Structure formats: structure tokens, C-alpha cells
Amino acid sequence: ITPVIQGIFRIPGYIHVLGMRLLLVEDEKRMAELLKKGLEEEGYAVTLAGSGNLGYELARNGEFETILLD
């Protein structure tokens, strides 16, 4: 991992921004917990939505760089 700018790292194949805001939409509770934990360990700020409807509302009203759907 090579720091590019403080908080931004270049990993072969992609750039990772620490604290990047992700919306994770996953209705299976165990899978959601595992994904959220793993993403947070990598430095992402994760908001979890347990349903498509909630995910839609959060996406409309929130500021996310990325939305992950199952």
C-alpha cells in the first residue's frame, strides 16, 4: 500500500479513500454484519440498510460515494 495523499492509498488496481461513505443494502442480517465489519476494518464509513425501501430512502437523502446492493 502506497500513500498518495494523507488518507488516500493506492493499492494495485484501485485507489482507496479512508472514510469513504458507503451505503450497504443487504437484507440478510448475518451477511450484512460480516460485510459491514470487513468494510469498516478497511477504513470505510458504512451505513447499513436492511431493506431495499430503506436503502432507497437513505440513498435519496444521504451523501454516499458508493452504494453496494445484493
Descriptive account of the structure:
Mean pLDDT is 82; it is low at 1-5. The chain has 70 residues and is of the alpha/beta class. It has helices at residues 29-41, 52-61; strands spanning 2-5, 8-11, 14-17, 21-25, 45-49, 66-69. The protein has a three-stranded antiparallel sheet, with no helix packed on it. A three-stranded parallel sheet has the order 5-4-6. The protein contains two helices and six strands; from the N terminus they run ββββαβαβ.
Key features?
70 residues; 37% strand; 3-stranded parallel beta sheet; flat; 3-stranded antiparallel beta sheet; alpha/beta
Radius of gyration: 13 Å
Overall shape: flat
Report the strand count: 6
Structural class: alpha/beta
Sheet with most strands: 3 strands, antiparallel
Order of helices and strands: EEEEHEHE
Helix content: 25-40%
Amino-to-carboxy terminus distance: 28 Å
In spatial order, strands of the major sheet run 1-2-3
Model regions low in confidence, pLDDT < 50 over at least 5 residues: 1-5
Oligomer: single chain
* Total count of helical runs of at least 4 residues: 2
Q: What's the average pLDDT?
A: 82
Beta-strand percent range: 35-45%
